[in-house]
Amino acid sequence: MNVLKDIPNLTMTTILIVEDEPLLGRAYENILKEIQSEAQGDPFKITTCKSYPSAIAFLAYCEEHLKTIDVCLLDYRLDIKNDTDSNGLIIGQRIRTSHPNCKIVVITSIGDHYLWHQILEDLNPSGFLIKSDTEYEILKKNLILLLSGSRVYSKKINDFIKRRSPLLKLKIDERDLQIIRLMD
Length: 184
Description:
Layout lengths: L13 E5 L3 H18 L5 E5 L2 H13 L6 E5 L12 H11 L4 E6 L4 H11 L3 E4 L5 H12 L4 E2 L1 H9 L10 H10 L1
Parallel strand pairs: 1-2, 1-3, 3-4, 4-5, 5-6
């Protein structure tokens, strides 16, 4: 059974990878190239940004030249020293505004449930994966499912979604989140 036959329109799929770890960025590229090769479609147009500033510059270029982004693999924590406003959530929000049809996949190692909640609420990502739940073949399978139109969440995120419904009734602002994080 070839699940790749179900992937619609691989022609000129533009993919943005935002990952500051070079090894992971290369692994994501390799997985996508394998998927494309097995699906026998046109090559993906893959751009990898290794920092917050390079991702913001690439998005500005796309906006200026009316280029679309079809898929974004987005790390949350980027290597920015002492700047809490330079993270994957900010990039994701910008993508969501300028490329509303982009399938955003957040891939992170952060285990902060309040942050997970914020990402789910603000980005409504097509995928949300925790790095410790993911290995090469699992990521490949998840990306194939994503390209086929499915949403993909790692086990930890699925479990969190099931448990978070009571949290949705709470109105927690940024100050409350800061206090909760300091209590941990």
